[in-house]
Amino acid sequence: MHRPPTAPAPPRPRTALRTAALLGACSVALLVLVAVGWHPLLAADDDLSRTFHRWAVREGAVTDVFRVLTDWVWDPLTMRLVAAAAVVWLVWRRAAWWTALWLAVTCALATLVQQVVKAAVDRPRPVWPDPVDSAHYAAFPSGHAMTATVVAGLLLWLLHRHGAGRAVWRTAVAVALVSVPGVGVTRVWLGVHWPSDVVGGWLFGALLVALAVVAYEWPWARRAEPTGRRRG
């Protein structure tokens, strides 16, 4: 007897929970080490930062390119505009109000967490006698690295969950693999962050993505939205 195909069961959030627990432990551990000024970490930060700064002063053309990338292409405002465009697309083309709200709230929460942690740790930025760039506010975690991680992570997860085409998926993964590590390199190269600031941004950003996935997939958080509905 032929049975009609049944819809696949929604994914369980257990994997995301485990991932969030691991990322949370790593984020807290790094936060504590930075806050207490653990000497081996500070020494490694100083050594790497001095090396990158020598390169930045010597390789002026590369520094100019990195400054454009960090100030315009991978700037947190640019990343938030990409997320905002995705929110508009979800509402206008998919009528996916719950998903759009989830994306917008997660990005806003990432900004809030970043500012709270910065204020709580209040870590000074590197200071150079011959700086190649400047930045404001506290150093830990890197807002550029954290914002890029959150936006790239959320959009990649949405593309994967909704079965993006092979070309779109490969392009998105390639862009993320260049952008997330790339923005971290530019921040250290330009001498405005310690390496552990960047690692902290990546960890906190990935943690928020994992928690957002848990919230999205948790049974009480699921919302019935039209699948495959398009406008235009």
TrEMBL record:
Phosphatidic acid phosphatase type 2/haloperoxidase domain ranges (all copies): 99-213
Transmembrane feature ranges:
72-92, 99-117, 137-159, 171-190, 202-221
Among Pfam families, the record links this protein to: PAP2 (PF01569)
UniProt-listed PANTHER family: AT30094P, SPHINGOSINE-1-PHOSPHATE PHOSPHOHYDROLASE
Q: Which Gene3D superfamilies does the record match to this protein?
A: Phosphatidic acid phosphatase type 2/haloperoxidase (1.20.144.10)
- InterPro entries in the cross-refs: PAP2/HPO, PAP2/HPO_sf
Its recorded name reads: Phosphatase PAP2 family protein
Q: Which UniProt keywords apply?
A: Membrane, Transmembrane, Transmembrane helix
